Amino acid sequence: MSKNLFEITAQNRRNLYAILTKTPKEKLLAIPDGFNNNIFWNIAHTIVTQQILCYKFCGLQMRVPKEMVDKFMKGTVPDGTATDEEIMMVADLLISTIEWAKEDYDNQLFQNYQEYATSAKVTLKNIDDAVAFNLFHEGLHIGAIILLMRHVG
Q1: Which of 32, 91, 96, 110 sits most deeply, having the most CB atoms within 10 A of its CB?
Q2: What SS3 class is residue 25?
Q3: Sequence spans of domains, the chain
């Protein structure tokens, strides 16, 4: 796999970090009419999904709290609230989770991948598939974030 995929993901995460840290909290948490989530949920969801795709499906301990996974995994919806501490934790995890994943990949920790059929009708068979699909998934969510930012002003 190209190490560039990790570099592209890291740049996307830096972009998300800038959005998260420069957008007023009320705009991060706003759920505009016609939407079922907000900017903050989309950002946190990218972290959780990456952890599930890479760590969980390899039978490894995820590097984020279980409560975060339960709150932001696929199928969840935000309640429109978040503490400053939660926002800062997500900001910190945006960068660190990708750094850890690259390190764990380089150390060949991602073995015995449990095949997974995504809702996008893509079957992931190994960690390389997961890293590539994760980048696609994050692209979808940054698109949603850009749309949400237009609606919240």
Answers
A1: 110
A2: helix
A3: 4-152
pLDDT (tens place) for every residue of the chain, 153 residues total: 677 999 999 999 999 999 999 999 999 999 999 999 999 999 999 999 999 999 999 999 999 999 999 999 999 999 999 999 999 999 999 999 999 999 999 999 999 999 999 999 999 999 999 999 999 999 999 999 999 999 998
Of 56, 51, 20, the C-alpha closest to 38 is 20
Question: CA nearest 104: which of 66, 50, 146?
Answer: 50
User: With the C-alpha atoms ordered 139, 141, 143, 149, is the resulting torsion angle positive or negative?
Assistant: negative
Task: Give the CATH superfamily of 4-152.
Answer: dinb family like domain (1.20.120.450)
For residue 120, the 8-state DSSP code is T
**Token duo for residue 122:** 């893509």
